[in-house]
Design goal:
The structure is a single chain. By secondary structure, this protein is of the alpha/beta class. It has helices at 6-9, 18-28, 52-61, 63-66, 76-80, 89-102, 119-131, 148-154, 175-187, 210-223, 246-252, 259-262, 289-298, 306-317, 319-346, 373-386, 414-445, 452-468, and strands spanning 41-42, 69-70, 73-74, 114-117, 136-141, 159-163, 191-198, 226-230, 264-269, 282-286, 350-351, 359-363, 389-390, 392-393, 404-408. It folds into 2 domains: 6-50 and 333-428, Aspartate Aminotransferase, domain 1 (Alpha-Beta Complex), CATH 3.90.1150; 52-322, 3-Layer(aba) Sandwich (Aspartate Aminotransferase, domain 2), CATH 3.40.640.10. It has 18 helices and 15 strands. The protein has a 7-stranded mixed sheet with strand order 4-10-9-8-7-5-6, sandwiched between helices. A 4-stranded antiparallel sheet has the order 11-12-15-14. The longest helix has 32 residues, at 414-445. The protein starts with 5 loop residues before the first helix and ends with a helix. Bound molecules: pyridoxal-5'-phosphate (PLP). Pyridoxal-5'-phosphate (PLP) is lined by residues 46, 119-121, 145, 147, 198, 202, 230, 232, 269, 271, 277, 282. 1-aminocyclopropane-1-carboxylate synthase (ACS) enzymes catalyze the conversion of S-adenosyl-L-methionine (SAM) into 1-aminocyclopropane-1-carboxylate (ACC), a direct precursor of ethylene. This is 1-aminocyclopropane-1-carboxylate synthase. It is an enzyme of class 4 (lyase).
Length: 469
């Protein structure tokens, strides 16, 4: 009696992942230029704060939209009362048009096929509830967004089986990796219901190639399973190759109104492209009327408030604004990404060449004390607690190779990024200096002590940081 449910107490939520632990550490000691200049800089949060001024300037020019007014008259009561339960038609139309615009109007979306949800988090879970049962599995390419363990598995009790991707081909999906994952699932007696991909990828910051997309369509056709394409970062593609939506591929291959057409579903949200995660606006787009009907019923548990829809339908219907926003946002993201890449380069660190997203996939394998996930954790802790940067270790994204980290660049000011890069550079050079002295020490004394490099390097890192200040 009085005990919480099994679900409430089970730990499959994934909140003990280093991805979330890093956030907790940041909360305890957040960097602030004036109030806490020695605090932790948050580089583990994929937020887009680069284009707020564009949104704010639109709001200033359109006070009615945020002020519960239409043509100067209050519509407070209309918005406060229950609206069309499953979304304002004007907003659904504005959202599908915005999705098409991001895809260069190469595809169009029907507002009758869209289901509004409280962010992509809710969209992904709702889709899994619609497509799979407890004991079924979805195949996901690694590395993947750490939140998927919570969103896809926790309440649905559906399993994730990894599609192992590696640095040898820039973490692209291969036919053999897909087949291998499928066999793995079968060995575990799991029924594979589909593949879920994130395009552009979180955490890689890359768009999927046409070959990969074709491969996926062939695979789901052959296995008669579903494909969920989480396209939450579709509006962040800042350089070539251009973004290709899975819908475009289906269209090009003349798959409209076929069985495969009904088995492909898109997840979208305004959390990244417009930088509005707090507004909780997400969507499922499906060609299957059964999925649309079921997801619509389920969306009652995570609707988008009517005043949010009202405000955003006005904003997204303003085509002059959306055009300018999309192009300026791209340019700003590109500039910021280059700053990060350059800063890392100066510290002797490289990253996967990216063309999208709010982060880079950074290669720190050379900084590991050994090629293990223990060494990755050891390095991560040093970076969080000593260097005071919260970045996300690859293991939290289920990467199979130790030493990769996701580093975000769009949730801070340019000065903060600069400081973060200075801290990192000092840290790396202190490791290098000390590993050289360590080598000399080893040569003279022929005595190895494993923790020595890091202990000395941090002492030296702090001393040098003090000197710089
Ligand atoms: C790939 C991916 N899907 C879904 C989400 C969740 O987004 P939302 O804030 O819209 O729930 C995120 C957030 O980081 C993400 O990266």
């Amino acid at each position: 009696m009085g005990l919480p449910s099994r679900k409430a107490t089970c730990n499959s939520h994934g909140q003990d992942s280093s991805y979330f632990l890093g956030w907790q550490e940041y909360e305890k000691n957040p960097y602030d230029e004036v109030k806490n200049p020695k605090g932790i800089i948050q580089m583990g949060l994929a937020e887009n704060q680069l284009s707020f001024d564009l949104l704010e300037s639109w709001l200033a020019k359109n006070p009615d939209s945020a002020g519960f007014k239409r043509d100067g008259k209050s519509i407070f009561r209309e918005l406060a009362l229950f609206q069309d339960y499953h979304g304002l038609p004007a907003f659904k139309k504005a959202l599908v048009d915005f999705m098409a615009e991001i895809r260069g109007n190469k595809v169009t979306f029907d507002p009758n096929h869209i289901i509004l949800t409280a962010g992509a988090t809710s969209a992904n879970e709702t889709l899994i509830f619609c497509l799979a049962e407890q004991g079924d599995a979805f195949l996901l390419p690694t590395p993947y967004y750490p939140g998927f363990d919570r969103d896809l598995k926790w309440r649905t009790e559906v399993e994730i089986v990894p599609i192992q991707c590696t640095s040898s081909n820039r973490f692209q999906i291969t036919e053999s990796a897909l087949e291998e994952a499928y066999q793995q699932a079968q060995k575990k007696n799991l029924r594979v219901k589909g593949v879920l991909v994130t395009n552009p990828s979180n955490p890689l910051g890359t768009t999927m190639t046409r070959d990969e997309l074709d491969l996926l369509i062939n695979f789901i056709t052959d296995k008669e399973i579903h494909l969920i394409s989480d396209e939450i970062y579709s509006g962040t593609v800042f350089s070539s190759p251009a973004f290709v939506s899975i819908m475009e591929v289906l269209k090009d291959r003349n798959h409209e109104n076929t069985e495969v057409w009904d088995r492909v579903h898109i997840v979208y949200s305004l959390s990244k492209d417009l930088g509005l995660p707090g507004f909780r606006v997400g969507a499922i787009y499906s060609n299957d009327p059964i999925v649309v009907a079921a997801a619509t019923k389920m969306s009652s548990f995570g609707l988008v408030s009517s005043q949010t829809q009202y405000l955003l339908s006005a904003m997204l219907s303003d085509k002059k604004f959306t055009k300018e926003y999309i192009s300026k946002n791209h340019r700003r993201l590109q500039k910021r990404q280059s700053k990060l890449v350059l800063g890392l380069e100066k510290a002797g660190i490289s990253c996967l060449k990216s063309n999208a997203g709010l982060f880079c996939w950074v290669d720190m394998r050379h900084l590991l004390s050994s090629n293990t996930f223990e060494a990755e954790m050891e390095l991560w802790k040093k970076i969080v607690y000593n260097v005071k940067l919260n970045i996300s270790p690859g293991s939290s994204c289920h990467c199979t190779e130790p030493g990769w980290f996701r580093v975000c660049f769009a949730n801070m000011s340019e000065n903060t990024l600069k400081l973060a890069m200075q801290r990192l550079k000092l840290f790396v050079s202190s490791i290098t200096i000390n590993s050289q002295s360590h080598q000399e020490f080893k040569n003279s004394r022929r005595k190895a002590r494993t923790n020595w490099v890091f202990r000395l390097s941090f002492q030296s890192f702090h001393d040098r940081e003090q000197e710089e200040r």
